[in-house]
Amino acid sequence: ILNVEQSPQSLHVQEGDSTNFTCSFPSSNFYALHWYRWETAKSPEALFVMTLNGDEKKKGRISATLNTKEGYSYLYIKGSQPEDSATYLCAWHNTNAGKSTFGDGTTLTVKP
Amino acid sequence: ETGVTQTPRHLVMGMTNKKSLKCEQHLGHNAMYWYKQSAKKPLELMFVYSLEERVENNSVPSRFSPECPNSSHLFLHLHTLQPEDSALYLCASSHQTTDTQYFGPGTRLTVL
Question: A26, A43, A58, B98: which could form a disulfide with A93 (CB 3.0–4.6 Å)?
């Protein structure tokens, strides 16, 4: 993988469903992986920063895992609520370039 | 955290106008960024400044001209724009270029 890819592009779930989506990134020269949540009409907000292979982070019903050797991170939402509706972005930092590369995002819609 | 502000929030300009977007952060960060988000497209990194020095310019047309007079302020000067430049322009800042970014509310630009 030469770029940052997120899947699926969009997701529609019912309230109460649990869901997960994927961020894939180059496995070489890994430095950090960030997850952001971007709600409509608001600014992107940081959720997690992950740096070590095997890292697991949790904030309320949202959690994330990291596998730097195979180049992917999963974001899980347990018991989705309508307020979880947003676009979830991941950003990959490598050790060579002093900047982040964002994925295209996964847009989650939670129906009441 | 709402430490990044952007003005104006909305801007409508003709193709022959010259205007500037302003971004200000009081978070003590050393890196600042300009992003563009066009309708139904992913976030595109335009420019990165680290310690007031431009470290990234992602093949952005010269009709966009950034300026970083100090570590707290970032401008994007616009001239002879095209209708396809209509988009949401987001500013962000971070401690270092590999750290979590904090985004401003954005400027919604419409070029007529």
Answer: B98
